Amino acid sequence: MTDTPQLGSFVRELTIADVIEETADAKSIVFDVPAGGEDDFRYTPGQFLTLRIPSDRTGSVARCYSLSSSPTEDARLKVTVKRTIDGYGSNWLCDNAEAGMSMHVLAPSGIFTPKNLDQDFILLAAGSGITPVMSILKSALAQGTGHIVMVYANRDEKSVIFKDELQDLQRNNPDRLTVVHWLESVSGIPTAEMIGNLLQPVATKRHSYICGPAPFMETVKNGLRRSGADMHLIHTEVFSSIEGDPFAEIVIDDSPGEDGAGPATAIVELDDEVHEVSWPRQTPLLDVLLSKGIKAPFSCRKGECSACACILKSGEVEMIHNGILDPEEVEEGYVLSCQLLPKTDRVEVSYSE
Q1: Fewest CB within a 10 Å sphere: which of 24, 107, 193, 202?
Q2: What CA dihedral angle connects 119, 238, 165 and 177, to 10 degrees?
Q3: What angle do CA 79, 5, 302 make, to 5 degrees?
Q4: What is the tens place of the pLDDT at every residue in 12-28?
């Protein structure tokens, strides 16, 4: 795969070290972290990588795959990919990825990640939704102190990704980990009532992390509600198709605002640092930050994922498009930096909360 001048300066390259067959339709792709690239690929449990996949029709497509590796327990990065019907990216990777191949990627991103690994967790996954949950599980067992209940749903026993690894983790942590395998071939499709009854003894005051197909996640959320769980402690991972090209170079629009106003000032808190930047009125904040070499998190650059979400601390802004944040999140102050334009002369945001 050759470099092209259209790639942004923020694009990185990884080499595949190994491809592991997990099940008949799922593979893990293991990447070496290049020497000196540790900072670029530092991540937290539950985050994902955005891969640039070749396409004969469009040149390339961008797809997000969760990291199943643990940042504290694994020296290499690993994403796990399950074939989906008509899924171009998953089928291309399962058919073509091999050791020695180089791929363009974006830095790890995503907000489906615990802030405290010492707490008690409920982890719920279905199918390939185990991927980010596995990263959280391994990290919490190694670095945390809490008790973890995991419910993992699959069609049948052959579909269970990481089956042996889960058995080893449970065997090595009998007092801290309980794994419940829900097999559709044995117990049928879970209902909210079933999930609620199963989790009722442990749901109160625990943070719950859910990843899987949309119907599964909705069922599980309803089950948690029935069990008495605090709905503010429920976290879900939602991926949507990326239609644009997040790997493309940034173009800054320096034209004034509608009223002829010059650039605003953005105060940005990120990774325990504070940046003050000039913010052209017609350019989204994320583009401004990336153009200045500031490593702000992002994935789609289209307002369809939550990777670039940050908190508005002061000032007024508008979002060009919001395809992911719900009204409650917007009310709490969350904004998408890839779609954010200033309405006041000074705006303060934070990625650190």
Answers
A1: 24
A2: 30
A3: 55
A4: 999 999 999 999 999 99
CATH code for the part of the protein at 264-350: 3.10.20.30
Rounded distance between C-alpha atoms, residue 337 and residue 341, angstroms? 8
Q: How far is CA 310 from the centre of its chain?
A: 14
Q: Residue 190's Cα: distance from chain center in Å?
A: 25
Whole-prediction pTM value?
0.90
Q: Tokens for 310, please give them.
A: 């940050």
Q: What is the mean pLDDT of the chain?
A: 93
Q: Where are the domains of the chain?
A: 12-109, 121-236, 264-350
Residues β-bridged to residue 124? 151, 210
Give one DSSP letter per residue of 248-307, joined into a string: BPP-------TT----EEEEEEETTEEEEEEE-TTS-HHHHHHHTT-----S-SSSSSST
Rounded Cα gap, residues 189 and 77, in angstroms: 33
The dihedrals phi and psi of 111, each to the nearest 5 degrees, come to -115, 10
Q: Which residue has the tokens 């491809």?
A: 19
pLDDT tens digits, residue range 186-216?
999 999 999 999 999 999 999 999 999 999 9
The residue type at 37: G
CATH class of 12-109: mainly beta
The two structure tokens encoding residue 159 = 């579909």
